[in-house]
Amino acid sequence: MGAFDTVYECHSELNDKYTIKILKANDNNAISRFQKEVRLTSRLNHPNIIKIVAQDTTGDRKYYIILIRI
Fold first, then answer.
1. Do 24 and 6 touch, CB atoms closer than 8 A?
2. What gap in Å lies between CA 24 and CA 35, rounded to an integer?
């Protein structure tokens, strides 16, 4: 758990491993940095790295969900 966000690890019924990252801070600088992190991470495309499967960076609760490839 960091100062700006909270990260949870979870598993699907199919045993896929996911991480949910939720922004805790609500100031404009933190929101801007979080949105940039999501944009940059979503551009990555490689079999051995994470993949964003859901995101909301504009609603009341800003988050993204990544699939962790093992």
1. yes
2. 13
